[in-house]
Amino acid sequence: MKKSILLSTFVFATIMLQAQTDLDVAFATWKNPSKSNAQRSEAYLDYIWDGYVYSNPDSAIILAEDLLLFAKKTKDRRITELAYNVQGVAYYVKGDNTRALERWNRSLKIATEIKHKS
Length: 118
Fold this sequence. Notes:
Elements: H1 2-31, H2 37-53, H3 57-74, H4 77-94, H5 97-114
């Protein structure tokens, strides 16, 4: 029994450490101006999704605002679309369906305009 608990604790700690490492790498990529805008924005999107959307949706909404500013600065409508989508999910997680739907509609409008089918 003790071995089972110890093994379970070790496995859980290893998984959590790897998840934190992945988040750290994603955030470092986001902050690295030598990376392409696409690499940076995709890394930040992963950082928001994996680190905040379900565990801290308020933070995800705020972080996605940074992504929206970056998308505006770089004139990347696909990133704008994805940032609105992640905000929609975060609002949905919070139970704010009105704001979730509003963000998803913004995302859908842009996706349609740029022909991003997925």
